[in-house]
Each structure stands twice: as structure tokens, then as C-alpha cells.
């Protein structure tokens, strides 16, 4: 049975075997025609069955297409889940098919926690509130979904097997559960690309003050923020941070993601996806044929390399900071500083002198 979403690199080769396999590997365009059933015309009825399988403690989306002697397709829970995901992506997407996406668990979604700060930043930012209609919040547990639906329009529950790890509580940096969650996120992002949507993934601990999309070149396949920026947007020696990541849907970017995960085998167990990207990004981009752009921390920065010019900052990430309480404390201070800045007369803002409050729990 040919796979619709396959880890077989031949899906992305023009020399792939059968025409039905090529069609299955290249599904794009009108997503309304993709679900619930994909029809192929080869003289017999083709049944489409979509299966959500488990990879480690996260799930992946896989779609299987098979001949079935003219039988009608069975509508499964997995098929419904894929249809639901496609529908929420379509509802949240911009005209060019781009979705702003973040993820939350119960701890991050609690009142007064990171979700509230994240949404508030859009409302306080300059021209960012209209972007909220394009933000899809992915909940990794039912309690987070309930809270999301109370405060936001576009929410999606990432379903997992009953025996999977509980992601509802805070996961400490570099713990096994944290690493599993990050690699699962990586695979989910690939699925979004395979469904034909561009995405701008943003961690929930990133504050949005201006539209960062204006700093992403139209020629970039991947644009990524950095913990530390060396001044060259094309330098593969930058230190990227996958918490803020734009990816354009294309065969080559899906191939990039597959190679990224495959590279995990070459590193010791317990290595996170960000470190592997930093070490292999030159090789991965060359082999997959993608163009990477590294974003200036003056525009898309964070606590690691703090942007000092509030007149330029678009997003601010609580990176180089561990502990949920520490992040909430310092980001609440960031929002207070932003309010003071935007409340000042234009002449005072032009003179400068505004900055982020120091010291904080993380800001130094």
C-alpha cells in the first residue's frame, strides 16, 4: 500500500515508481478536496483510510491508501482527527496558507500563566492584534484545550494514546519527557507541511509586539530565530532557536525535516533537536536544497541576547531561562515595560532611553 505521508525519501523524488504513489506523495492545493476521502481514477475505487500512529510517546499522522475491490471507505476516529486538523488549519490560515502556531499544556494554560501573557502581548503590540485570528493553539492535554477554548478561537487537541506520557504538567528542560515532547513537536510540524500549510511556530513564552513576518524574506524556505546572532542572516554558524521558526510548505522542507530527525541517530541519547539542528544545519540545508534565514535578535530576540532597541523589537523570547515561575515573572515585567514605552509621547520614544527591567529572575 503506498503511503500518503511517508518517511520514504522516494516520495520526494521525481523518479518515484507508480503514478498513484506520485499522486499520493504530492497532495496539495484545495484542502477541502483532500478530506475526508482522496479519489484516484485508475478504473477502480480507491479507499482512503487515515491512521494516527504512535512514535515514542507522541503521535504522528500517517495516511494509507489501498485498493479495496470497490468497497466504501470506513470513517474512523483517526480519519476524523485528520479532517479536524485540516479544517482548523484552513480556518486559521492567512491568504497564502500560513498559520501562526503555538502549543500549550495545562500548566502553561492556567490563568495568569504563559497563555494569558502570550495573548495579552498581541493585544498590546503595534498592529499585532489582527494576527490573533491566524493563531492556532495546539493543546497537548484536554484541560489545556478547555482553557484554550475559553480565551481563543482556534484550538486543537493533539490526541495521544491512553498509555502515553502525561504532558499536562511542567516538563523540566532536557528531561526525558521534555525531549520526547520536543521531538514529537518536530514531527507534528512536518505533518503541517505535508498538509500543504506554511507555519510560523512560536513558543508560548514569546511576546509579540510587532509583526515579525515583515522580516522574513520571500526567498527563504526556513527562517529561524537565534539564541545568539552573529550579524549575518545567511551564516550557518548562527545559533538557532527552534522556538521561533517559519517554514514554507514544499517537498524540500519536508525532506529537511526527515533528515533532521534521521540525524538524531548520530548523536548521544538525550540530545535535543535544537542542538542537532545547530550542528547539522549546513549539511541538512545543502542536501535538502533549502535556503535558511537567521533572524536578527534586534527584531526577534530573547533573554539570551536581549534587544535593547524597543523601537525595533518584534518578538521577545524567554530563552536562556528555565522554570515556569521564572518565565512568568520576567515576562510579566516585559509587558509592563512595553506598556510604559507605548504610553510615552512619540517624542520621548524617539529620544530613547527605554529598556527592559533588570535584574529579573532570568534577565541580567
UniProtKB/TrEMBL annotation:
Domain Nucleotide-diphospho-sugar transferase: 131-331
Stretches the record annotates as Disordered: 1-21
Keywords: Membrane, Transmembrane, Transmembrane helix
Domain of life: Eukaryota
Composition bias type Low complexity, residue spans: 1-20
Chain ranges passing through the membrane: 34-55
Protein name as annotated: Nucleotide-diphospho-sugar transferase domain-containing protein
Natural source organism: Oryza punctata
Lineage, opening ranks: Eukaryota, Viridiplantae, Streptophyta, Embryophyta, Tracheophyta
